[in-house]
Design a protein that fits this description.
The protein is mostly beta strands. The chain has 4 domains: 84 residues, Immunoglobulins (Immunoglobulin-like, Sandwich); 82 residues, Immunoglobulin-like; 82 residues, Immunoglobulins (Immunoglobulin-like); 263 residues, Alpha-Beta Complex (paralog of FGE (formylglycine-generating enzyme)). 11% of the residues lie in helices and 39% in strands. The protein has 5 helices and 43 strands. Strands 10, 11, 14, 16, 18 and 19 form a 6-stranded mixed beta sheet that branches. Strands 20, 21, 24, 26, 28 and 29 form a 6-stranded mixed beta sheet that branches. The radius of gyration is 47 Å and the shape is elongated.
């Protein structure tokens, strides 16, 4: 019996142990994997240093914990399960970037969650200026990045920009504006305990062009080296077969264009051009082949004309429509030949020009320019007229020009504007402007006629067929400036294109920039010969204007300005 009881007791104890173990296993609420936990660590920085004392809150998946950053700006959250959390830093008087961060744990710890702290209402500034051609450029978008910062500022009317509230650290400044390039493209800036004023950034407008043509006569001149300088640019272009050149990608600003080619001179020697928001096409530059040497001026006597101011136009009234409005003109000092250029003087020039290859003779009675500015243009023509109306006196025979006996000192009247201009330039002289001519004619006394006393009669001038041909220059009294035949004898070419007067006061006017007719002044021996005497006299007034195509033939006189100044030939 005892043996049976012992067996039963042992069985009961074993059953109790089995039940206890079974109950222990069935009471476990989670799997082993669900018991695992993870950490989230990070740093809060101000500039390049950790910021202590920042309260960092983590929420999500039933968690709501707070940690405080240590002296290195570090924070840690432990015992976190898999899931998504939000981390939010806070500290009085500070802002943070990002303001909060989302973190997802999935089987591993999360590290290096960094926040950038900025002291509100403090920090340092970066400032600078962007310039275009020495002036501030407005409207440039300037971006600062780095150290957790990404901000944009727009330059003001002075080209200035400023970024404030920046912590110590490294930043990059980058400008941008449509159609502009910048030098430098960006600027690296390090903030270390103080604000920074950075170097000036230079903006360049892309896409503007300067174009032009260089001509020798009517034709483009190839192979000319053309240099553009200014505004930080120094480039060279070579003219093509049409004489054309182009400079591209130039910014707004002022430039100087200078041509050069061996054995050539250029008018103008250089040109200044200002780009301001559009392409520029320059005036034509004229190339002239350099001759063998300077030319000695023939026996021409000059008189000095002082500077002064006068009333130009029909001051006296009763004139012609083209002589108004009367306007005030100021003329700089110059010298003028006291006589019209004579047959003898012009014949000397023709022989010199012929020997140098500057002219050619066509059909023994017409001189044409050869090469240069006036290529193939008529200079002089031998009129075949009845003896009593012979306006010439220059002859051509056996390859040489001469003058009929007795006509050596007659004014050279069969000369085109081109022939007159070429003569003047050959000797380093020029034709007078229309304003210079009228000022000189009035003799400094506002005379109605260019005579000794401002009146006209057959004893004072050769006009209206009083004598049926030209007479020797200087046959009548000079005007108060010492100039002869400013009234009658031969029509005289002026440099200007013919055009309407302006009513504005003006200094040293040069006339229109283009036209169809060149100005003539003085009247002549035959003008008004079949009209009433009063009408003949009217045509010889100081204010009287006449005009003709530059291919026609008349007389001229020359001027010499300070420093040899000449006005550019234009077609």
């Amino acid at each position: 019996m005892k043996k049976i009881f012992a067996v039963l007791w042992a069985f009961a104890v074993l059953l109790a142990i089995i039940i206890a173990v079974s109950c222990s296993k069935s009471s476990s609420p989670t799997s082993p994997s669900e018991e695992e936990s993870y950490t989230v660590t990070g740093v809060v920085r101000e500039g390049n240093s950790g910021l202590a004392g920042v309260s960092v809150l983590i929420t999500g998946k039933g968690v709501n914990q707070t940690a405080t950053t240590d002296s290195n700006g570090a924070y840690t959250f432990q015992n976190l399960a898999n899931g998504t959390y939000t981390i939010t830093p806070s500290k009085s008087d500070y802002t943070f970037k990002p303001a909060s961060a989302t973190v997802t744990i999935s089987g591993s710890n999360k590290t290096d969650e960094i926040f950038m702290a900025t002291k509100a209402g403090s920090g340092y500034t970066i400032s600078g200026v962007i310039q275009e051609s020495n002036s501030g450029l407005a409207g440039v978008s300037v971006r600062v990045t780095g150290n957790g910062v990404d901000q944009t500022a727009i330059t003001d009317s002075n080209g200035a920009y400023t970024f404030g509230g920046l912590a110590n650290g490294n930043y990059t400044i980058t400008p941008s504006k449509s159609d502009y390039t910048f030098n430098p493209v960006s600027i690296a800036v390090t903030m270390s305990g103080s604000g920074r004023v950075v170097e000036t950034i230079i903006a360049t407008k892309a896409g503007y062009a300067i174009t032009g043509i260089i001509r020798e006569g009517d034709f483009g001149l190839a192979g000319v080296s053309v240099r553009v300088t200014g505004n930080g640019v120094d480039q060279t272009a070579i003219t093509d077969s049409n004489g054309a050149y182009t400079f591209q990608n130039l910014a707004n600003g002022t430039y100087t264009i200078t041509p050069s080619k061996s054995d050539y001179t250029f008018k103008p020697a250089s040109a200044t051009v200002t780009i301001s928001g559009s392409d520029k096409a320059l005036e034509i530059i004229i190339a002239t082949k350099v001759s063998s040497g300077p030319h000695e001026i023939p026996d021409i006597t000059f008189v000095s004309i002082p500077s002064g101011t006068f009333q130009m136009g029909d001051v006296e009234g009763g004139g012609y429509l083209g002589e108004v409005p009367v306007h005030t003109v100021t003329i700089s000092s110059f010298e003028m030949s006291i006589y019209e250029v004579t047959n003898a003087q012009y014949a000397v020039y023709l022989n010199e020009a012929l020997s140098e290859g500057d002219i050619t003779v066509f059909d023994s009675n017409t001189v044409l320019g050869k090469g240069g500015e006036y290529d193939d243009r008529p200079y002089w023509c031998l009129y075949n007229m009845t003896p009593s109306y012979n306006m010439n006196g220059i002859t051509y025979s056996a390859g040489k020009f001469g003058v009929e006996p007795g006509k050596e000192n007659w004014p050279a009247e069969s000369v085109s504007w081109y022939g007159a201009k070429a003569f003047a330039q050959y000797y380093g002289l020029d034709l007078p402007t229309e304003a210079e001519w009228e000022y000189a004619c009035r003799g400094g006394k506002q005379y109605k006629y260019g005579t000794d006393d401002g009146t006209i009669s057959p004893n004072k001038a050769n006009y209206g067929l009083n004598i049926e041909h030209s007479v020797d220059v200087g046959s009548y009294p000079a005007n108060p400036f010492g100039l002869y035949d400013m009234c009658g004898n031969a029509y005289e070419w002026c440099n200007d294109w013919y055009g309407s007067y302006s009513s504005s006061n003006i200094t040293d006017p040069v006339g229109p920039s283009s036209g169809s007719y060149r100005v003539l002044r003085s009247g002549c021996w035959w003008l008004g010969g079949f009209a009433e005497p009063a009408e003949s006299e009217k045509l010889c007034r100081s204010a009287n204007r006449h005009h003709s195509g530059p291919f026609n033939f008349y007389g001229f006189r020359v001027v010499r300005r300070p420093n040899g100044k000449q006005y550019l030939f234009e077609n």
